Each structure stands twice: as C-alpha cells, then as structure tokens.
TrEMBL record:
The keyword Cell membrane applies. It is a multi-pass membrane protein. This is MFS transporter. It is found in: Cell membrane. The chain crosses the membrane at residues 12-32, 52-73, 85-102, 108-129, 150-170, 176-194, 297-315, 321-340, 386-403. It comes from Actinoplanes nipponensis. Signal peptide: none annotated.
Length: 412
C-alpha cells in the first residue's frame, strides 16, 4: 500500500522524500546566499549609496516581504497542500537573477529582493513544514537540524563562491548566474520529484494526544504564538532577535570588513564562515535538543551570539573577526533548529503549519527590524555602535527566554 494511502511517520520510513527535501532546501538557501557577499558591495561601489540606511533597504524589503509571506505560507499549506505552495515559491523567483544582473538603478535591487522574500517565505517555510510532517513527534530536533543545516551550508558555500567569482570577474553578472542555476534545479526537483505531505499531518492529528485544542482559528493561533502561550511567544521573540542580528551581519559586516582594508576574498570567507558554522552546528544541536531539551540551547545560544557580536565590535583584523564569526555561527546553530522544534512540540498538528508560519513571521521580521535599526544607528554613530546595540538586544532576548519559557521537549 502506498505512503499516500497509509502515511507513516518517522525519518526512516520517509528517508527518500526527506532527503530530497533537504536537497531542495539547500537550493533555496543557495539563492539567498548569492546576495550576502555581493549586494552590500554593489550598493557602495556601483550605486554609490553612502548612507547605511539607504544601503540596507534591500534587506528591509526582503525581510518584510518574507515575514508576511511566512504567515500566509502556513495558512496556504493547510488549505491547499504543501507542494503547490513550494512550486509557487520557485516560480516567483525566476526573474531575480535577471533583475540583479541588469539593474540600472537601486530600485530594481529592492524589487528583486521583494521577489526573494516571496521565494524564501514560500519555499523555505514549506520545506520546513513538510519535514515536520514526515518526521513525526520524536525526532523533530534532528529533522530541523538537517533542514536548517542544508539551507545555511548552502548560504555559506554560495557566499564564498560568489565572493570568488566577484573577485575574478566583477560584481556582475557572474555571481548571479549561479542563482539562475539554483532556480532551474530547484523548480525541476520540486515539480517532478517532491510528493505532497499534508496527509502525514492529518494522520498525526488523528492520533495526537497532546493538551492543545485542535479546533482553532488562524487568529487564535496567531495570538497563542505571538504573546499568549509562554513557550510559543518566547520562541517568536528569540527568533526575531536572532534574525535581527543576522540582518546586521548580512548588511553591515562586509562594509565593516572592507573599511578595515580586507580583500574581496577575505570578506567572502568571513561572510561564509558564520553561516558555515551555523549550518554544520545544527547537525549536532538539533538532535541534542531531542535528548537534552530545547530551552538550554535557546538561552545559551542567544547569550553566545551576544558575546560574539561584542567581539566583532571590538576587533579590527581578519583573525579576530574569524573567531567571532565562528562563535556567532555556533550560537545561532544552538538556537535555530531548536526554536522550530519547540514550536512544533507545542502546536497541535491540525494548526502546526499556521503556528510555524506565525513564528516565522516574527522571526524573519527581524531582518527588516535589524536592517532599519542597524542602518539608523550606523548612520548616526557608526557601524560598531550598531553592533553594540544589537549585541545588547540579543543578550536581553536570551534572558527573557530564560525567565519565561518552559521546556517543551516531549518526554519519551
């Protein structure tokens, strides 16, 4: 009998589809990674955007669009199924490399990043939801570790590759030809090889024994995830601050490194090091949270990120910044898959996709908040001052999770 007729939960039972979705999410991450080294330098060198706030508008556009799209992705996945939403995510991304290559003005870059936000919100959110569907309740930390590791290792590898391409061939068009290749491959795999997983969530919902009510409206789910339920709302605020400091890292770190005289290759290496440690670390932290609990990793990860940001603000050479990037990646690795697993622990399978969407709304809203906050502070007081402000916010977020969040890991 087919998997569609009798859904089976677990990583072993769904190994083929789960592995395919890991590959698809790596391609989604690669599309995002193609911008991390090149666009901050493009803003400075080709478009002459001297003000940091103006230069970070593309991250603001990306973060705001992705945040809102995450919310609707969860609802659409519940209503229409996972695969149609995944395909829509790839289709809206098709114009992105062309727009980045031929952009005659900064407005084109902003428009391309609106499409990138739609792509990431639809495609990345859906691969997360599909893996949660397949994994079942016992190995969610491992499942999210594998998912986020694939995505952010691809971000890292692509950031390094585009830095090397830009150093050899210029900022355009070579780095964005890699983006086009990712899009073609991701759309093809999603169209012809990925299967629908909504039936697995329905099967789990039919046998669910948790305390949460299954029959909730989207408004009720949003309220629970945003502020009413302590663990869900703690995850939402920690996720938002986590991506706030990632928005800072994406938009301002290359400019800080360039101002210190680092080469394009060195900047690309630093831009890749942080997400590389982030990606690899999740292979350990995700399954470890299945064994030891979610809360310790979330609190410790946020505090480690704050310490790493403080080191970046103090440092002024490649070696010190490389050490800080490793620490920042390790802290983010502790937090990222664990927050998703915690949301999945608490949410009922009947509305879990919507809860994940609301969580990701807050989390990726951090990109927009981070770009705006970091840009304003950097314009008034310099990049290092912006890093100090974000470091303080990150530490406060970790302390808030420590005091408000309870342990969510299901007991065997």
């Amino acid at each position: 009998m087919s998997t569609a007729a009798v859904p089976r939960l677990g990583l072993v039972a769904n190994a083929g589809q789960f592995t395919l979705l890991v590959v698809v999410n790596a391609l989604v991450g690669g599309v995002l990674g193609s911008e991390r080294t090149v666009l901050p330098l493009l803003a400075d060198r080709e478009f002459g955007l001297a003000a940091y706030t103006a230069g970070l508008t593309y991250i603001l556009a990306f973060g705001a669009t992705k945040a809102v799209t995450n919310f609707f992705a969860g609802t659409l996945c519940d209503r229409y199924g996972r695969k149609p939403v995944l395909l829509a995510g790839w289709l809206v991304a098709i114009p992105i490399p062309v727009m980045l290559i031929w952009a005659p003005s900064w407005g084109w870059i902003i428009a391309a990043n609106v499409l990138l936000g739609l792509n990431q919100g639809l495609a990345w959110s859906t691969t997360v939801i599909m893996k949660i569907d397949l994994a079942g309740p016992n190995r969610r930390g491992l499942a999210m570790g594998l998912n986020e590791a694939a995505g952010y290792l691809a971000v890292a590898a692509t950031a390094m590759a585009t830095g090397a391409l830009a150093a050899q061939y210029g900022l355009r068009p070579a780095p964005f030809l890699l983006t086009a290749a990712y899009l073609v491959l991701g759309l093809g795999l999603s169209l012809f090889s990925v299967h629908e997983t909504r039936g697995h969530a329905r099967h789990e919902a039919a046998t669910h024994t948790g305390g949460q009510n299954a029959d909730l409206s989207t408004r009720q789910v949003a309220a629970l995830t945003s502020w009413r339920e302590p663990a869900l709302s703690s995850a939402s605020q920690a996720g938002m601050v986590n991506n706030l400091n990632d928005g800072l890292a994406w938009g301002l770190f290359p400019l800080l490194f360039a101002a210190a005289g680092l080469s394009l290759t060195q900047i690309g290496a630093l831009a890749a090091l942080y997400p590389a440690v982030w990606g690899l670390g999740q292979l350990a932290t995700g399954p470890a949270s299945d064994r030891y609990g979610r809360k310790p990793f979330i609190v410790a990860g946020m505090l480690l990120q704050a310490a790493a940001l403080a080191l970046i603000a103090l440092a002024d050479d490649f070696t010190a910044w490389a050490i800080a990037a490793v620490l920042l990646g390790a802290g983010t690795a502790a937090v990222y898959p664990t927050l998703l697993a915690a949301v999945s622990d608490v949410a009922h399978p009947a509305w879990r996709a919507r809860a994940v969407g609301v969580y990701r709304l807050w989390r990726d809203g951090g990109f927009a908040v981070g770009a705006l906050l970091a840009g304003i502070v950097a314009d008034f007081a310099g990049i290092r001052a912006a890093v100090w402000v974000v470091a303080a916010l990150t530490a406060a977020s970790g302390l808030l999770a420590w005091t408000r969040m309870y342990e969510t890991r299901p007991r065997p």
